[in-house]
Specification:
Structural class: mainly alpha
Order of helices and strands: H
Distance between the termini: 68 Å
Radius of gyration: 20 Å
Largest sheet: none
Number of domains: 1
Length: about 45
């Protein structure tokens, strides 16, 4: 019975870590695409 609760705890911790990780990736991707867009716009405005 105790093993079950430990695995539950582990899985919830993993879920939290994954969420945080995904958010970071999302931010990174958003930042990069924004940067690329700026570069493209800058090149076209020349």
């Amino acid at each position: 019975m105790r093993n079950l609760s430990i695995s539950k705890l582990c899985s919830s911790v993993m879920a939290l870590c994954n969420e945080e990780f995904l958010r970071k990736i999302e931010l990174e991707l958003t930042y990069r695409s924004f940067f690329c867009l700026q570069k493209i716009v800058f090149l076209h405005s020349k």
